[in-house]
Design a protein that fits this description.
By secondary structure, the protein is of the alpha/beta class. It is about 40% helix and about 20% strand. A hairpin with a 4-residue loop joins strand 1 and strand 2. The N and C termini lie far apart (about 30 Å).
Length: about 130
Amino acid sequence: MKLDLQQNEDYALLTPHASKLDSTVAPDLKSNIILLGNTLDTGGLIINLENVEFADSSGLSALLLAFRLYRDSGRTLVLCSLHDRVKKLLDISQLTSSFIIRERLDEAIELFSYYDDEGDDFEDEDSDGF
């Protein structure tokens, strides 16, 4: 799977270039998420899903892995630009409130800018944790 990665001191931005997050690409995404989580020294991760039109349980598993890895290390994970089918999967799985989700990439980036400016612990009113 082709992935774009950009990073700065506050966050890394991961953009998968696959239209489906399914069993054919989820293992590769998981291994990249683990590598990023264990090697990058950033405050958080934004996963930009603008290219992903469909996800199944394997794709959901990759997103949950990212959530747990970042949560357990005290860092923030934000999902953005979700297509309706991916949103529906999160809704059906009752995980929407676990993730911090933003409609657009600029809104996700803004969360990290706000966090950096305030110097407070990051807490999103839309996320209940997992």
